[in-house]
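Quick one, tokens below:
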């Protein structure tokens, strides 16, 4: 059966990640379109954390557009920057705590893979925020997150999303290399 929502999410999602790797502010428009289409599919598949994640992504797309398109008082655009190890350890601990609570919550509603879904959603929230702030390591998070989503969506037989997240992982590698070599690295 042809699923318009999944195919639309695939096309707009790929456009989002490609444009993000190029640091184009227009990535956020395509990200917003992809989130709406993905959210419908995830809700139908009872992946509730992923469904809620799409609402966050929609808000993040608005915030990302705003941060990437505005200039600082000095007239500069947002530059790529890097985080220290302790920042990453704190963010991962936060993701673990959120995923435990969220997984327990969704388990009561018959969610599919509640803890895995919640952990990947929590990490995705963090990685998206890092993307909006042009933190270089967001791409490393995305590589791991995308590969884990490939396994989860394969298990759920959401094969179009398997393809999408495999492509995302490849583009994330490209994005990391491109941002790392960026001339505007702070």
């Amino acid at each position: 059966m042809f699923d318009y929502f999944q195919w639309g999410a695939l096309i707009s999602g790929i456009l989002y990640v490609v444009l993000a790797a190029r640091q184009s502010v227009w990535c956020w428009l395509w990200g917003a379109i992809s989130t709406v289409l993905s959210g419908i599919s995830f809700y139908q598949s009872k992946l509730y954390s992923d469904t809620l994640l799409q609402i966050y992504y929609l808000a993040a797309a608005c915030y990302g557009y705003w941060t990437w398109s505005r200039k600082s008082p000095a007239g500069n655009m947002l530059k790529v920057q890097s985080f220290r190890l302790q920042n990453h350890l704190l963010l991962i601990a936060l993701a673990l705590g959120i995923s435990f609570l969220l997984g327990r919550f969704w388990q009561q509603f018959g969610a599919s893979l509640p803890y895995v879904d919640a952990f990947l959603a929590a990490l995705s929230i963090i990685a998206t925020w890092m993307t909006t702030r042009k933190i270089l390591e967001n791409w490393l998070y995305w590589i791991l997150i995308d590969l884990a989503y490939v396994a989860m969506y394969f298990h759920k037989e959401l094969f179009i999303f398997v393809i999408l997240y495999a492509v995302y992982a490849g583009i994330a590698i490209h994005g990391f290399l491109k941002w790392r070599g960026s001339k505007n690295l702070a």
